[in-house]
Predict the 3D structure of the following.
Amino acid sequence: MKKFVGALVALLVLSGMGAYVIVQARSLGSNQGYAPDQPVAFSHKKHAGELEMDCQYCHFGADKGRHAGVPPTELCLNCHSKVKTNSPEIRKLQNAVDSGENIQWVKVNHFPDFAYFNHAQHVNVAGFDCQKCHGPVEEMEIYEQHESLNMGWCISCHRDNQIAPPEDHKSAAGGDCAKCHY
Amino acid sequence: MKKEFLIGVFDCDEKVLEATKKAVDKHFEIYDVYTPFPVHGLDSAMGIKRSFLPYVTFAAGAMGFLIAILFQIWTSAIDWPTIIGGKPFISFPAFVPITFEITVLLAAHTTVAAFLASNFLFPGKQAMILHPEQTCNKFIMAFDKTRINKEDVTNFLNNNGAISVEEKSADNNCFALIGKGE
Amino acid sequence: MSDLTNNDSCGTSCGCADSTPQTYWQDVENKVLDPAVLKAEFPEGEYEAMSSMKNRRSFLKIMGFSVSALPLTGCVKIPVKKALPYLNKQPDTIPGVANWYASTYKDMPILVKTREGRPIKVEGNALSQTTFGGANAQAQASVMSLYDSSRLREPKVASKSVEWEEFDSQLKQHLENSEGEVVLVTPAISSKSELAIIEKFSKKYQAKHIAYEPVSKSALYQANKITHGAYTGAEYNFENADVVVSLGADFLSTFGNGVANTKGYSKRRDAKTAKMSKHIQVEEVMSLTGSNADHRFTRSVADQHDILLGVLAGISSTTHNTKAENKDIVKIIVSELSKANGRSLVLAGENDVNVQVVVNKINTELGNYGRTISVRSTSFEKLENDNEFESFVNDLSEKTSTVIFVNTNPVYNYYNSEKLTAGLKKVKAVVSLTLSENETSNIAHYVAPINHTYESWSDTLVSKSELSITQPTIQPLYGTRMYVETLMSLMGDNTSFYDFMKSTYTGSTSWNKFLHDGVMQSASLSRVESPRSFNIANYIKNIDTKSSSNLTLSLYVKDGIGNGDFGDNPWIQEMPNPITKATWGNYFMVSPVWAKENSVKSGDILEAKIGGTTIKTVALVQPGTDKNTVGLAVGYGRTIAGKTAKGLGVNAYPFMSASNGSFTYNSSTIELKKTGKTGILAQTQTHHSMEGRDIVREATYEEYMQNPKAGNTKKAKLFHIYPEHKKDGHQWAMAINLSTCTGCSSCIVSCNAENNIPVVGKEEVNNRREMHWLRLDRYYKGDESNPEVVHMPMLCQHCDNAPCENVCPVMATLQSSDGLNQQVYNRCVGTRYCANNCPYKVRRFNWFNYDRGSETERMVLNPDISTRTRGIMEKCSMCIQRIQDGKLSAKRDRKPLKDGAIQTACQQSCPSDAIIFGDKNDPNSKISKYLAEERKYVVLEDLNVQPRVNYLTKIRNK
Amino acid sequence: MSGAHVSKLRKPLVPEDKTYKEISHEILDTLEEKPSKSWLICFSISALVLTLGMLTIGYQIATGIGVWGLNKTIGWSWDITNFVFWVGIGHAGTLISAVLLIFRQHWRTAINRAAEAMTIFAVACAGLFPLIHAGRPWLLFWVFPYPNTRGDLWVNFRSPLLWDVFAISTYLTVSLVFWYMGLLPDLATVRDRTKSAFRKFVYGVLSFGWNGSNKTWHHFEVLCLVLAGLATPLVLSVHTIVSMDFATSVIPGWHTTIFPPYFVAGAIFSGFAMVLTLLIITRKVLNWENYITMGHIEAMCKVIVVTGMIVGLAYGTEFFIAWYSGNEYERYCFVNRATGPYWWAYWSMITCNVLSPQFFWSKKLRTNIPFVFVISIVVNIGMWFERFVIITTSLHRDFLPSSWAMYSPTWVEVVTFIGTFGLFFTLFFLFIRVLPGIAVAEVKSVYRFARENK
């Protein structure tokens, strides 16, 4: 009897360890929750949340092309040449434009270059909200990577949203490898 | 834990076989017979039941077969169907080799595991040795001293070809070798 | 730039031996990215896009940008990447969206695709009425030359680098103060505005302007002067020609505007859509054009003369005693020509004024002028004149004050280089305005860099009735300056050439339209000249028809390399010659007969004695070569050049000569002997027979007219043991018309540029490891001394039942729902099983990390395509990025995807429109119509792999 | 144990009269003694060759497969040739122990241990090639279907290469446990004989506490039978699957239904040749003439003659079918093998594999040990050429002549291949030093075969 109990316990411990390894392995390389400090204390909560600015005012590439883009520094000054010009953070922007020394933002959402992602495809064609992938940006004081951005995450959405294209467009080809990898 | 044994030492497989048959006839309770090689007929003479191992093999093999075929169908046709070489999602002929291999793999390893487990063999186990040459050229018939009439058995052994009859106490603590012993 | 060193260290040095140094390339999953790609992938980078004409900033500033990829200290989970936005808003530039600019490359109106300010791809401008959207391999490859790191970066005076101001003032001072003649040597120029500036310059300094081309057509111009009164080239209209007779003129490639010629020619080569023309070629070495001829005859140059005179005699009142062995040829030509009066075209390739006059006479007699050929005069061109250059060399003396070489390299490519050099030594100052340092700049006192075409403004006459604009698509990469601006500056004019040029186009609408369209048609640009009378006998008597029993060296121009200008372009060097399939270098092209007699094999090193010179290089036994002729390509053997061209091959220019007032390329006698050594002849194809296999299907025009299925009657009995997958939605397919494909190889280079295909170098090509996704198979049939040739573009066939897919253990290659065979690079582990199991052998394996050149050179990479690292299989993707882009554009416009909106790179670049791509599920698409054709077949049909690439039977008008 | 009676019909498997103790001593004393000089020399050479091989492989992995002589047309050559060659060699061991066990061929007992060890080492050498032949070997774990972050991207179960992965790993592990289970009683014998405390400890750990209990022996015999029963189809399946790498493809010369039996016969052929080579050396070096007798050698020679003729028949059949099929690509492929640029490989194969074993019809020759030794090596050379012919000459000229190419190996491939011999012999020499090279318990059990006790 003792033998059986021992064997059972050993089996349980082993499978527990296995499960742990699998769970850990599956999140390997994921950068979910990455929220680095940025050179300018920019708050998405303030701009997108409280001021209800449209995301695409700054990230104007999202609707048109592959990259959403970090806005040109000059764009910030559209407002900030008038608003809060005395804030030391804002002054960094003005200094950057004046000196030509650009602000080095820290990239948060990182996609490997073997995976092609096109913002326009998702924002314009599929009509997704930015929040679908980027999370509740309007609540983020410091912007963080909200989703794992690994392939499984992409695939699960592609499976759930076999995007029905307009009649004539035929195949959305939502699951093809060459949708992203080429 | 120490155990007291009475052993008969034989130097020939035929003699130990004869003696075993007679001992069984005389209803002496044989603890075990230790031989350097499998002596043909000794197991049946000792009245050992047919090994259960083939049943384990069959069960594990059947399990392996099922796991392999179902896993291949599930991954290729259900979880993520992909068109490969224009073949159907469930390409049975292509699944045969791996199904066969997994069947054999599981059957073989489970049988070995069952063999080791049922005989309580494991790396580092301290062997219970009653006679230093029992794995070389001596054939040892062992009796549990507590369960036999010592005199009868000693006589029996001496009369049936044993070259010597000894009393041995053996430590059957199987973990002694790897240092967990007393 | 700290990140750059970081990249260096993460790269792996490659062991493949080649003259080009091997550097690094990032892994497709390497997280430390190479900046050149980062720029593209993450265009928040601060480099300033050359997005509009007005908003241009120094590109060099871009080079100072920094994208850091530093690992976090301690817990290294993911490297920190910096995202740098533009400082200023860049109108017209959306990161990740390409901008297209109309421009011109040589005589081809083109569109340049730029991404974030970097030109990455060239395509033909479909609005052009000259090239109709065609662009040849050179144009496709030119974008690589732009980034060439061997380009000259700063002006030099007496080998010392100086600032532009210093250079200008010193040279200006010299020009103003020095007595004597000033000579300006340029290539042939057909730009209105450039000529205007040169004229001003000439006026100011009494400079003499000479146009010089090492591969000259001066004799043709002279002949036109004699027969039509205008020193100019002829324009050919192949579309109207029922019969084309060419004596050694490689008109589809190197003779005249090859792209325009191919466009017209190919319209008459598709038996389905038009009455097929008949093409007769007589030549001494096999040319691309000859390989497409319906009747090709291998004849020496002297025999060609004989035939020419025989033909003239056959159609006019002159007499000629044709040699017995040429009589049949003359008979065929004359009978074909007389059937097609006014709808024929006779051309000769030789740079000999007598020959060209006779050709003009024949065309006049046949009434071809005005229908298939025209001579139009214009003041907007300055064409090469061999006579002028000859006398320039002869007249060089202490009296000459200054010689300015603009983008020319006569010290290398003039036949009597020694004499020229000696003469130039007497000259007070030699100036070389050049893209990169060369043999001429090496002896020049003043050396200054010029802009690449894609950094320049110009307006070029691409045909006699069409102007094409050249506009910059990037700021000068290396601090260079347009040569015209240098001339302006030397005149003390500090305005920009752009302003000058723009001012000549009055009315802002016409300028803007010109800028937008890139081309402008106007009949007023030239005047049609009519034939004049002349005494033909004077010219006939000078034509030598005596066959020589000695071996004669015939210099020829190789497709791609041209006169050698493209020597430093690795794409061009690695483009297999359409005929010989050899890359990287030149070789003695010898006939099989001669080779057998002298037991020479391809790859043997031969020693040649020509005049007093001895050279050594490898032999290539080329079917279709005259047995007394040895072919040798010009453009190699550079001694001072960039890393690619330097030391490659032998220089053939010294074996040119001048006679009758023009350069001659085929008069030297040559003695060849074996050295017993063998060399590298990096060929991409070494077996030239189809072995009687059913690969290219053929029929004659006659057979086709009787039965459109002629030659295509074999049909395999196929059956499926499995049910087929459903094929709805878009289903991509391709058709390749073997009748119109000329083998020009423009598609190969276009594919290279579009898909970031690495260049592997001579050694690796010789190891049979070239990476081209698209190759042109060339097979010979019949008589070795004059074989029939077929060209067959071979690329991934995107089989529905792809054998490659079955064997990949990790599913790195599989079928897409729209019928493409996808190769997932990042999943590939590199077993090469797929390549083995590919019946078409179109898969390419990255044996090493291939050199992608310097950092600047890597800017040519297409940012939408990953670059593959070693150990990965790759192959044609049917330009999946273009398919995706096309579908996305349609979806964004909420409109159905139009047929033809998606063009693969090879299709786009094809000057003969032989490649058609589209959705075969769309019944109205062009591809559906092609697939319904009787000529349609698939290669290796009996394997039942169900390829998506279809071929149309080759029809010959025999 | 004296005065054994000798049967008139059959020769005893152990010709000389011995006691069980003598048998133990003669076989196991090697493990106790200091290594002999000849062993040391052999081992050092093997280890050196192995080191060279490993360094070369390191160089290749660091630089890229390009250091091999492969090209766009010939994607496999020496690598897979060597793989199939070693897998083939790895067949005899299991075959001898499993098939002969089932058929109760007692003569196997003297050679099965070494043959099984050889199997495992050969399969290890074989397994090396699929690993290093990959362009990105560090990612080869992708061939296993494990749960992952890629949306659970699985593997392609239709790929013969994946079948190989499962077949080779099953074969290797099953052979390993089969071999090891057989070793247990002998390890126990070593443990109980040795005087050295260190050895006692090591062999004590290794022997799993085996004490010769007959309850265990009973299960053990059943286990051996079961494993033999499983290993027999397994061993046939492995080379069948290896042959499917080629047979399921479309390439002329590969796409051949005859391959599975042809490969299996070839594997047995080469495997027995290799066993012969090794045992002729071993019996000489370790003085085991009493256990590995002329009878063994003759028996193996006979197997070689039979399998060699099967292989010869396969060559003929292939040629006939290529002609009979009417398929021009197949026809060309086979004509090209015999007369094309690689004709020398083809005729080497025919000479070594079909002609050379015919000498074994003569009893005089097959009992001539040096001669047998030479032929055993010749057969292995021939079998290497067979794989080279199948792989390289089929690939180098397939469908489209435009892609036809030639192949020649680079020094890296040559050294890597030699290096695997280093691996093989290093392991083998280690094996005969530290493990019982002959199955002692089994020899004892058949000692009385054809010999009666008084």
Q: What stands out?
A: DSSP finds 30 helices and 42 strands in chain C. The domain at 699-737+878-958 of chain C is CATH 3.30.70 (Alpha-Beta Plaits). Chain C touches chain A through 60 residues (CB under 8 Å).
